[in-house]
Amino acid sequence: MSQSYVSLNFLPKGKFRIDLVEGVTKTNFFSLCYGALTTIGLLTFISYATTYVLIENLEYQRESIGTIVGDLQVVAEIALLMVFLPVGLIADKIGRRQVYSFGMAAMGLSYFLYPLATGIGELTVYRVIYAIGMGAATGMLGTVNADYPQDRTRGKMLAVTGILNATGVILVSLVFARLPENFAQMGYDQITAGKYAMWVVAGMCLTTAIVVAFGLQKGTPTEEQKKIPYLTQVKSGFEESRNPRILLAYAAAFVARSDLVILGTFLVLWGVAAGTDMGMTTSEATKAARLIFVTASTSALIASPIIGYLIDKVDRIIAVSVCMALAAAGYLSMFFVGNVLDPTYRPLFMLLGVGQQCAFFAATTLLGQEAPPMKRGAIVAVFNLAGALGILISTGIGGRIFDAIDPSAPFIFIGVCNVVVALFAIYVNKVAPTPKQTSEA
Length: 441
Known about the structure:
It is a single chain. The chain has helices at about 25-55, 60-95, 95-115, 120-145, 155-175, 180-185, 190-215, 230-240, 245-275, 280-310, 315-330, 345-370, 375-405, 410-430, 435-440; strands at about 5-10, 15-20. The chain has a two-stranded antiparallel ribbon with strand order 1-2. A hairpin with a 7-residue loop joins β1 and β2 (about 15-20). The chain has a single domain (about 25-215, about 230-440), classed as MFS general substrate transporter like domains (Growth Hormone, Chain: A), CATH 1.20.1250. The protein is mostly helical and about 450 residues long.
């Protein structure tokens, strides 16, 4: 009997196999892989760019940048809250790749404009452009990740794209984040060095826009999606929260998306602030902070295949509870960090990276399992809305407690949120466990 779908083996004897749904080709899959490699990495560069522009271009003092960074993130999340739902609905109507390509192009435009800002007002406008692009690109990355794999290999699919996400983050941290320093060594002043670095990143965003525009699957997973009225789609995304397992996925997104941004925003900021307090230049402090972020990201990279493999072996609700607990351990451990640049604390940053990756994988896998294909765009949009709301709250609070209490405070706050979701998962497993036929699929 012939096989009507593509199956990809990453280890001998099918020990790490991904089965794609019918109609998805290898070209579609590898185009998604390129998108996964670049999208999240290029997204995280905003933390380096923001800190750099605030200190070098706009000459803000270290004592006030935590609040400014938090406020910029809040504005971005408000924009995301307005973008995610229409992005999901439009993708269900016209297709994923057009929306994905637009998102990457908008991110590229924002990086081109960012170093040209002459004040907080302009920087805020450019950050909104970035947020619109980020919302479209990450929304489609998550949606296509849910579209392409068959359910039995969903965790492994996320493991592969998660490895690529983490690899992209590491490449950005090791290569692109040091571009300002490299340009400075060529004789450019600090402002020009930062500008050229951000323009290189803008070019990379445009490259990804072209790849996904031509490489991802055409159309939508089901033609029936095009016939569903927008208002009906909107309602379906929220009405699905009546399913406790989807509600858990939304709650997990609220925390897991916050995990990612808190890690990318405040860990870098913490390192840069510590470095400048020690007398380093901004470029030197950024280099030192980059190594902390790379430690966390590398740990996430190494752990990704193990996490994905195990998630496919266990009940996804249980996976959410365990993964959120592990993430909580990583974030709460920041309480014990003294000098963030001290190599002694690297094991805690490794735990932080693994925990953040676990939380994201568990939330996304549960959503992919529970979301019906015809409603997937709308459900993923609400999932992303929950994540944006989580980021809005966590960064708004995080920026202030970073300045007012301690740089570790935003991490401890998110750690407590992870504990709450882990306990909620235990409750959902009791009142609405995964149906037997789904868990055995």
